[in-house]
Amino acid sequence: MKQVIVVNEELNLPRGKLAAQVAHASVASLVSSEAEQQQSWFNVGMPKIVLAGENLSQLQELYEKCQELKIPAYLVQDAGKTVVEAGTVTCLGIGPATPEDIDKITGTLKLLK
Amino acid sequence: MKQVIVVNEELNLPRGKLAAQVAHASVASLVSSEAEQQQSWFNVGMPKIVLAGENLSQLQELYEKCQELKIPAYLVQDAGKTVVEAGTVTCLGIGPATPEDIDKITGTLKLLK
């Protein structure tokens, strides 16, 4: 089991803001998953991988694919009190799910450096 | 209720690595908290704040204070497959807990930019 977070790199978020948004995606996607998926992921040390996404429309497409394949996912919209406008989609959390399932969605994306 | 993640800025982690470590701290500290704390935090939208810590010894001191005050916390040690050496302490997750309790621990730290 693993979790993947895809970041909207069009926004070029500063480090602290980025980290908070990725953490939000991780927790919110976790909460949207089933107890069995959660436990399996905890048992293997909760691996999570942060990937670079291009822009909003890519994140929305990936999110729709997750919904089609019934993979837990959560699209983070920032509350917009700082840095970015309210409603801005900053990142997408996917899983926990099997690597096979997640790689169908994000297999071509690169690690966020 | 809120959650705070203190980053070991001595390591100067790259953005993707930093984000993954902060997400790990967030989830692990959440899992170490009680069901009532978790639910109260979910109810207010899971606020989380990322702060800049100076170095390992500061993070360890903060962690010990959390333990004394019985505030849920989790010190993240990296598995060390990339970027940093195995066992390196990258960040500290604190809470969910009340802002009053958390501010006793991290009240003097600055936001991570």
Quick summary:
Two copies of one chain form a homodimer. Chain A is α+β, with helices and mostly antiparallel strands and 113 residues long.
> What is the correct CATH architecture of chain A?
3-Layer(aba) Sandwich
Strand arrangement within the widest β-sheet of chain A reads 3-4-1-2-5
Radius of gyration of chain A: 13 Å
Oligomeric form of this entry? homodimer
Write down the secondary-structure element order of chain A. Answer: EHHEHEEHE
Under CATH at level 1, the class of chain A stands as Alpha Beta
Our estimate of the beta-strand percent of chain A is 25-35%
Helix content of chain A: 40-55%
Provide the residue-averaged pLDDT of chain A: 94
Tell me the count of domains of chain A: 1
CATH 4th-level superfamily of chain A: Bit1
Write the layout of secondary structure elements.
The structure is a homodimer of 113-residue chains.
Chain A: E1 2-8, H1 15-31, H2 35-43, E2 48-53, H3 56-68, E3 73-77, E4 89-97, H4 99-106, E5 110-111
Parallel strand pairs in A: 1-2
Antiparallel strand pairs in A: 1-4, 2-5, 3-4
